[in-house]
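Ticket #393: bound-state structure for iron/sulfur cluster.
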Amino acid sequence: MSDRTDLLGFDLEGLAAWCEGLGEKRFRAVQLLQWIHQRGESDFDAMSDLARSLRAKLAVHARVGSLPVLSRHASADGTVKWLFDVGGGDAVETVFIPEDDRGTLCVSSQAGCAVGCRFCSTGHQGFSRNLTTAEIVYQLWHAQRELTAGRPDARGVTNVVMMGMGEPLQNMGALVPALRLMLDDRAYGLSRRRVTVSTSGVVPMIDRLAAECPVALAVSLHAPDDALRDHLVPLNRKYPIAELLDACRRYVPHAPRDFVTLEYCMLDGVNDSAEQAHELAGLLRGRLPCKINLIPFNPFPASGLTRSPRSRVEAFADILMRAGFVTTIRKTRGDDIDAACGQLAGDVQDRTRAHERLAAAREMPIRGPLPGRRAGDPASAFDARTPPAKGCA
Ligand code: SAH
Ligand code: SF4
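RESOLUTION: The complex was predicted; output attached.
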């Protein structure tokens, strides 16, 4: 089983090359892509317009991989959360959020995350490994298949957000072919504006995304100044706010709707004051075409943080809107099944001791500059641990 190639791991180019390697014509890849991704078929024998000889070869050399579903929960509001077993004691979560006009799938890119943001449950779990393209795509394949099974008129997934577990831009090699499949008319056919990559700010990879597969970009800002962002998003010590905003500005000409979304998680007494809203407006004014999305913090016990009161979130939004920024407040969905932003923790074999690091950080005051900025930077340790992104097809 394991020597067979998982065809979910290929975009069209990759699959065409693989078909050639098998002594088949490249155009077979189009047929395969349509069977697998549009019709959700995993049984080569059922692919009736493929020659019998090709089907026989596929049965020997290929498979459409599957991940065991460890659990599936449906929320009262229609949100569905799957926990997939990716082997080695790691499990990742995927969430489907139905709304009146769309169905959004929140997809994971890593088992855990090494960035270690203070307010994020995934970050507290630590990092195990990058997901493969096949594992990223499987989440969409499975959800789409389940949501539309036996219901040809069902809408299923119309939007994908790379906002599940992990930092997608630390897994570029696997991410880019997965994004290409999402966009390919012969696979999922989603428009660029309906596929969003969210990042904590891996600056060089923002440029690479623009060059290789420019989809909608969301950047997790969370603070108006470096001292606070250093504490909340440790990657800031490597790529501070000014560099991050410059990268966002370079991205805008490639963005499907000419702006970048800035995400800001509202933490009680930490980043939610009127003064900080003015500071944020001052930071962004004239600098970046953007929309701001305020996310009410979804608490989990180990964070030691609490959600900003609704009135403060609204006051913060009001200041930004008066300053001319389109600002939205994210609706919290699926929190009864721990499926809301930042609550995805899956099950991760931490290889980073993030848990201990964050437990120690919890004891530190959250305001004020960190001693030795950039020195002993966990982001550097992270770089050493993470395999370099492979060249993309
Ligand atoms: N690693 C990427 C994408 C996954 S996190 C990133 O950080 O952007 C997706 C979004 O959820 C990010 O904006 C993140 O800041 C936010 N988030 C994380 N923990 C959260 C929490 N506990 N409550 C609310 N939002 C959270
Ligand atoms: Fe990683 Fe994003 Fe969570 Fe930060 S918010 S720890 S980057 S998943």
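RESOLUTION NOTES: The pocket of iron/sulfur cluster (ligand 2) is lined by residues 113, 115-117, 120, 122-123, 166-167, 200, 220 (CB under 6 Å).
TICKET STATUS: resolved
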